[in-house]
Amino acid sequence: MKKTFKKNERLCSIKVIDSLFDRKNSANEGAFAYPIRVVGKPSDEGITQVLFSVPKRQFKHAVDRNQIRRRMKEAYRLNKELLTKPYYISFIYVGKVIENYAQIEKGMKNCLKKL
Known about the structure:
Blueprint: H1 14-20, E1 29-33, E2 36-42, E3 49-53, H2 62-79, E4 87-93, H3 101-114
Parallel strand pairs: 3-4
Antiparallel strand pairs: 1-2, 2-4
């Protein structure tokens, strides 16, 4: 598997995003490994699509949110082969401070193994 992150791997569909966070849907799977929380469900398409989210409430400056998002994307890109089947996935950063890349990658690996 190539270690790239292309446009078609990004989750953009509002319907799919709403269904990911719908509490009534029991098909959704979740995992948590500090500092990342994951919500996912099996994909109908043959490709995994992902969404990265950093809360504005915790990190007021866009520079900080973008830095965390870049680190999460890089950790996902390098470890996405841990996924066995296609999913729709949302990665949500839940840490209170900006963690270093090694900590984010460790959390990403643990979350991907749990899915």
